[in-house]
Amino acid sequence: MNEPTQVFLQPTPTDDLRLASKSEVNWSAGEVVVTAGAVSRVALRWDEPIPAEALILGDAWERSYGDLQWRHLQPERFLPWYWLGHDQKTGKTFGAGVDVHPGAFCSWTVDQTGFTLWLDLRNGGGPTQLDGRQLKAATVRRFEDAGTPWRTLHTAVEAMSTGITPRDIGPVVGANNWYYAYGEGFDEKAVLQDAATVVELADGHPVKPFSVVDDGWNPGGNGSGGPWESGISGLFDDMARTALAVKDLGARPGLWFRPLLSREDGPWRRAGQSDGFGRALDPTHPEVLDLLRADLRRFKDWGFELVKHDFSTYDLFGRFGPAMGAHLTDDGWQFHDTTRTTAEIILDLYAEIRAAADDLVLIGCNTVGHLAAGLVDVQRTGDDTSGRDWERTRKMGINSLAFRLPQHGRFFTVDADCVPCTPQTPWELNRQFLDLVARSGSALFVSVDPAGRTPQTDRDLGDGIRLALSGGNAADGGIEPLDWLVNTTPTAWRAGTDTVRYDWSRPWGADPAAG
After folding, report:
1. Element at 243 (helix H, strand E)
2. Confidence category of residue 273, pLDDT binned at 50, 70, 90
3. What is the pTM of this model?
4. For labeling, which of 362, 444, 470, 501 is most exposed (least CB within 10 Å)?
5. If residue 108 lies in a helix (H) or strand (E), which one and from where to where?
6. Of residues 238, 250, 240, 233, the one with CA closest to residue 175
7. What DSSP assignment string belongs to 110-170?
8. What would the mean pLDDT of 358-372 be, rounded to a whole number?
9. Which of 42, 19, 18 is nearest to 130 (CA)?
10. How far apart are CA 5 and CA 384, in angstroms?
């Protein structure tokens, strides 16, 4: 990167941005060093003209919400982590970004006269007290054209993943009951039926599929927090027995939990954050990390081989991704430990979970992608698909896969979320999503309602599951969306040497009132 044109500081969230003085900024050996007392945000500005016809792409804080797209210049549009610009006149693609595991929440804005990197250095909703400590906020990179926008995004993601090596866990394929059970009215018998179904559909494939018990198994019920010490009496009386029974059927057992929410009160609450399902925990209290370590040891002792940890971003910020925006959270509250930035706290949390999980396969859901990279094995990259409304699957699942697939294998295994097979959703559309995910080599989970099974769905599901267990089209060069510059849910895809076309629409098109 060239030296920024200007640097701006915001000491506290209520202060205005101001131009940093020469004594506060030093550029040396490729580093920008900012020296200040209290600081909440730093903005680095590069005055470099951007082509007026350029299309701009960014990423998302955590999951995407059907909102990833190439778009014309929009100066106020904030772009988390990285951005690419595509000059429609010259065909060149360019951009900038920050490496994974930064010490700040990093976003960009791009306009016709240049671009700005915004470093959010706060602790919760207030300034971090560094107390003389030097903080490495971000490693910044420039991206040059690699031939096409798709190749340029791949090379950009590869550059930003310098220093991490995701674990080789093989294909991640299996069953998850969420999109037909939705956390209600299921028990051990239903879980074992799911396991038997996915094993039957895998039809003897040498790679074993997973069978995941999603939300709704612990005494608090759907959406609640811990303690995570037992299952619901009468439904899951012995979680170790459930895990063993799944293994006996030929599948690998997995389990969902919400690590930063508790139904019990205590001094470790995150200031001001609770909902009807429990109270959020502050991970800067050592006792909270002790609880997480004990939970993960317990899940492993029960015999589970995969753990999905969910809701931690919401429980930390009180907001999901779209509501976080550039503000992230409410002003005025801070963590128990005010000496670390929020980014550092979350990064430390993920590292603690990874260490405690040992060899468990970890899925991060509602986790911050740039901080979770290399610390989760699988990342839910898009918001929920649906077993009730096809529009949601089209909007969330296909968009996430199209625009975040280059992160697959570099940051983590990408999971665009489950393929539903339910009576409420059209199988002729779900089966196309199944085919695309299976070809991609990314994680494939299916939610198969027993009432939705037919000979045709079983044939399609079996074909998709076996293809995914074999790695999809990875050996043939993977897949690539061909119309992603102009379509948020691409319909034309390269798969190996073939071009595959999908029709994601109902007869009336996309219903704006659905999804």
Report:
1. helix 239-248
2. low
3. 0.96
4. 501
5. strand 105-111
6. 250
7. EETTEEEEEEE--BTTB-B--TT-------EEEE---SSHHHHHHHHHHHHTTT-------
8. 98
9. 42
10. 41
d(CA 303, CA 323): 37
Peptide bond into 49 cis (omega under 30): no
Distance CA 11, CA 451 (A): 58
Apex 440 CA angle, 205 and 403, nearest 5: 155
pLDDT value at 274 more than 80: no
DSSP 3-state assignment of 492? strand
What is the C-alpha to C-alpha distance for residues 207 and 188, in angstroms, rounded to an integer?
24
- Name 94's bridge partners: 85
- On average, the pLDDT of the chain sits at 95
Q: How does pLDDT run across 420-429, given as a tens digit for each residue?
A: 999 999 999 9
What backbone torsions phi and psi does residue 173 show, to the nearest 5 degrees? Answer: -140, 140
Structure tokens at 397: 């699942």
Taking only the tens place, the pLDDT of each residue in 247-266 is 999 999 999 999 999 998 87
Residue with tokens 């128990």: 336
Tokens of 274: 């609770």
Burial level of 310, CB count in 10 A (0-12/13-18/19+)? buried
Of 316, 280, 177, 300, nearest to 239 (Cα)?
Answer: 300
Contact assessment for residue 306 and residue 289, using Cβ atoms and an 8 Å cutoff: no
Burial of 76 (0-12, 13-18, 19+ CB in 10 A): exposed
Structure tokens at 480: 């690539």
What single letter denotes the amino acid at residue 381?
T
